[in-house]
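hey so i finaly got around to running the thing on Queuine tRNA-ribosyltransferase from Syntrophus gentianae. pasting the sequence first so u can double check i didnt mess up the copy paste, my clipboard has been acting weird all day
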Amino acid sequence: MAPLNQHFRILNTDPESAARCGLLSTPHGQVLTPAFMPVGTQGTVKSLTPDTVKALGAEMILCNTYHLYLRPGHQLIASLGGLHSFMNWGGPILTDSGGFQVYSLGKLRKITPEGAIFQSHIDGSRHRLTPELAIEIQEALGSDIMMCLDECTPYPATFSEAEASLSLTLSWAERSRKARADSSPQALYGIVQGGMYPDLRKRAVEAIAAMNFDGCALGGVSVGEPKALMEQIVAETTPLLPADRPHYLMGVGTPEDIVKAVDCGIDLFDCVMPTRCARHGLLFTNTEKVVIKNARYRKDNGPLDSECDCYTCRNFSRAYLRHLYVAGEILAMTLNTLHNIRYYMRLMEQIRDAIGCGQYAAFKSRFLKDRQRVET
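ok and heres what it spat out for the C-alpha cells, dont ask me to read them lol
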C-alpha cells in the first residue's frame, strides 16, 4: 500500500484518560479532533445549506456511497467535477463504503465471498457491490476519506457466525487496499468488526493494523446490542488501535455515547441522530428533554436553549418552534436541525477545550450527571 496520504498529529492528551485532541489534514482542509461529522447521506445535510453547515462549526461531513451509487450515480458525479463541486462543499468529506446500508436491506441482499448482491430500495434493480467497486465509486466521488467495504455483523450472533463474518471483512479489506489507486490522494480506513467478542475484536485490530491503513474504524456497534455491551466493546478495543492513526467510531451516537467514547480515545464520530431527531421534533439541551410538539410549549416565549448561540435560539421562541412543527412548516425542519447540529458542534468544542486544559475527567463527570437529570 502507498504511504499515508494524510497526516494526523496529536496535539493534546488528557492525563487521566485516553482522550486526545488531534489535527487531521486532508486535501480539502484540516479537521480538529475529536470531531463529529454531520451526515449528508445523499449529498446534503437534510434541510441545511452547505454554508449553514459550515457556519455551525462542522469541518467534515459524511456522505453515503450506497445512495450516491444508486442515484444519481458516481460516474455522473465524477463527470460534473466530483462530489465536492457537485454539492458545493469545500471542506473534507468522508464516504462510507455502503456496507451498513446493504446490511440494513435484510432480505433484499445476499452476502457472498465476492461481494454483496442486493436489490435497490428505489426500483428493485439488482446490483453487486464488491470491495473493488466500493473503492471505484469512492474514488469517482473524490472524497477525502474512503472506507473499506465490510460486513456488519448482526446482533445477536454466535461466535462462529461472528468469526466467519470477520474473516469476510478482513478479506474484503485486503482487496480494498489493493484496489485503491497508488496515485490517489484519498485516505483509506480499515474497519474493525468481530461482533461482541473481545477475542475477535483483538484479532481484527491486529489484522487491520498490519494492512497499514490510514485510519482505523470500529464498526458493528449500535446494532441492537445493550448499551453497556457496546460501551464495553469500545472501551476494550479502542486502546488496541494504532495510536498514531485516527480512531473512528461509526454510527455513534448520543451525546453521552460520544463523551464516553472520547474518554477511550475515539477521534471521529458520525450519526444521523441530530438531524433525524430534529425532523421528529426532539431537540437537544443540557437542561431538559424538549419534544417541541408538546402543549407545554404553546405559550413559552423563551428561547429553546438559553446557553446556545445558534440562530434558532437567538431569534425564536419555543412557542414559535412548536407552532411551525405542529403546522408542518418546512422552516421547522430547518430551525430544528440547525439547533441540533450546533448542539453537537458545541459539545465537540467543549470536549476539545476540556482535553486541552487537562480537565476532561471533570468535564465528563459533570456532563453525564447533567444528561442523566435530563433523561429522568
